[in-house]
Amino acid sequence: MTNSKPETRPSLRTWLAVISLALGAAIIVTTEFLPVGFLPNVSADLHVSLGVAGLMVLVPGLSAAIAAPLVIVGAGRLDRRRMILVLGLLVAVSNLLASVAPTFFVVLLARVFLGIAIGGFWAVVPPLGFRLAGPRAGTRATSIILAGLSAGTVVGLPAGQLLGHLIGWRATFAGAAGAAILIVAAQRVLLPELSSGGSMRFGHLAKVFRVPMARTVLVVGAVVTVGQFSASTFVTPFLLQKADLASDLATVLFLGYGLAGIVGTLLGSALVARSRIWTFVGAAASFGVVLVFLPALSGAPITVSVLFVVWGLIWGLVPLALQTLMLTTTPDAPEASAAVLMSVLQLAIAVGSALGGLLVDSAGLSLVFIVGGIIAIVAGLVASVARHGV
Question: Averaging pLDDT over each range in 9-23, 148-162, 169-183, which range is the top one?
């Protein structure tokens, strides 16, 4: 007979705190991918090629990859609540600087600041779902936080597409800065103190790589992310130029893509509970197939529209599957594993965006989607081979 007490259910305030973290995720992802909706506008206004304009997506990914381990180690025993608030303010600063940038170089500098915020946020926040809600409700809390990824896409891609044309890309960045400040204010009220649980050292990060299954998760996560972002960075010109869709319809599709991603992430908690690895395998292979066939179907706008939304639904499963795989593979080092995973994934975003930019400028839009799809399928195949032990 045990004396252990049943786990208490999370309070309303706890769920509100979780939602505030989801909103923080949403504004970060919104800011990261706002430029995808108005790449042609920035390209024209600042006199750079479309491929060079894509650096606005590459640079935050690269700087986040570097920042994630540095921020988590440099933070030491700093309260995680305070860290989250500071990182949220850095998102606001990045947006404000981009909104007044006189040159493309200054825009990229602003995006470096964003990358630091991204790296720090995603190194600290994913394990907090379990800390706030407890073991039983932790997966649900994590899925809500990660739904902010898709929510950011809901806002980011349509906002970039629509507001970039209505009020200009500079005013759009300024609006994102205001939203970031409001979310930080809400987090200041709702989040409890979150002690670090000890200082992090680079040695703790290195130990993550010594876990065989953790290495596998990092590899397949990096590969699938390269495939995703080599294509998604240039989806606006694909829809407008190859699929010949009107700008208004493209905006609606971006909204559908993001909403489908939220649904995929929230429903994915049940799939992940059954099998983390098979959820990832199925999602990676499925959206890879969608990407491969999109260029061939560009003459059928209705089919392209449906597949685009399906892509969002399937992709919504991937971040949740990767995060839960990583956290369950390294249960004794949640912050270290989250920092390493974020660093690897953000580097993969940078590589994917760079690969997409090279292909766009040298071979055209269609090949970007075919190559991205093949890469995603490869990630699923590798994961299926390495599934034992997960």
Answer: 169-183
| Dihedral in degrees, nearest 10, Cα atoms 176, 346, 308, 146 | -70
- Cβ–Cβ under 8 Å, residues 146 and 280: no
Phi-psi region of 193 (alpha: psi -120 to 50; beta: other; left: phi over 0): beta
Q: For residue 187, what are the CA distances in angstroms to 21, 54, 319, 329?
A: 7, 32, 23, 29
* 164 burial via Cβ count (<10 Å: 0-12, 13-18, 19+): buried
Of 319, 337, 271, the closest CA to residue 149 belongs to: 319
User: What tokens were used for 32?
Assistant: 């990261």
* 25: amino acid identity, one letter: A
Task: Write out pLDDT tens, residues 345-382.
Answer: 878 887 888 888 888 878 878 888 999 999 999 999 99
CA angle, 325 then 265 then 287, to 5°: 85
Amino acid letter for position 177: A
> What's the rounded Cα separation, in Å, for the pair 295 and 306?
14
Distance CA 304, CA 317 (A): 21
Q: Give the 3-state DSSP-derived string for 256-311, with helices as H, strands as E and coil as C.
A: HHHHHHHHHHHHHHHHHHHCHHHHHHHHHHHHHHHHHHCHHHCCCHHHHHHHHHHH
Residue 121's SS3 state is: helix
Least confident residue range of 263-267, 313-317, 327-331: 327-331
pTM across the whole model: 0.73
Answer yes or no: are the C-beta atoms of 340 and 218 closer than 8 Å. yes
DSSP character string of 154-213: HHHHHHHHHHHHHT-HHHHHHHHHHHHHHHHHHHHHHPPP---SS---HHHHHHHTTSHH
